[in-house]
Write a structure and sequence with these properties.
This protein has a domain of 141 residues: Orthogonal Bundle (Hyaluronidase domain-like). Helix content is 45%, strand content 0%. Helix 4 runs antiparallel to helix 5. The radius of gyration is 16 Å and the shape is globular.
């Protein structure tokens, strides 16, 4: 039985892209599943006006931003993509948030950590252990001390779910690698989850 989704109104893609495999590049190839939407691919998923309306005190700002993201269909869709094994596609959606949040702000750096989690999972599917280790290490650096983090600091994601994903990535062994060329392969058992205080049912 499929896991419950956060953004069920948005269809999942027909395949997950893995560099070097047989399926077409989603954006650059006319046969790609995102080719028709390539011109809007870089549209910011959260507006400057929304960000400007947030409080300036850092802790309050991050908790308010977490609440905003919990109602953002693109943010929720990225979680669905990641949890279902569409790692490259989740990376692409999170990159839009990274840009919208300013790239170098603490919030943007946290999103960059999520991007590296997705990149590590792509490297698992590629069968590139050095890439898995590199992206996993960078993710841990950017995501910070998850044991001491609250859900504002993790932009509404349950810290224990992120920690579980990072730990799983760091303990991958060659026996676990799956380089199948099938359309979608989920290589991680752990899911990223929204925190329960946001009023959403956790997966």
């Amino acid at each position: 039985m499929p896991e419950p989704r956060y953004a069920p109104a948005i269809e999942l893609p027909p395949y997950s892209y893995v560099p070097g495999h047989d399926l077409p590049h989603p954006v650059n190839n006319p046969a790609g599943h995102l080719y028709a939407a390539r011109d809007s691919a870089h549209a910011l998923p959260i507006t400057a006006a929304v960000l400007a309306a947030l409080q300036t005190e850092p802790h309050s700002r991050r908790r308010a931003l977490a609440a905003v993201l919990a109602d953002n269909s693109r943010w929720l869709y990225a979680l669905d993509l990641y949890n279902a094994g569409f790692y490259w596609e989740a990376h692409e959606v999170w990159e839009g948030f990274w840009n919208a949040l300013g790239r170098t702000t603490p919030e943007a750096q946290f999103v960059q950590g999520l991007i590296h989690l997705a990149a590590a999972a792509v490297k698992i599917r590629e069968g590139k252990p050095a890439g898995v280790a590199r992206h996993s290490q960078r993710a841990r650096e950017l995501l910070g001390d998850l044991g001491a983090a609250d859900v504002g600091g993790t932009l509404g994601l349950a810290p224990e779910s992120i920690s579980a994903v990072v730990t799983e990535l760091e303990h991958f062994t060659p026996a676990c690698w799956h380089t199948s060329r099938t359309p979608v392969v989920r290589v991680l058992a752990e899911n990223l989850r929204l925190a329960s205080w946001l009023g959403h049912q956790e997966l």
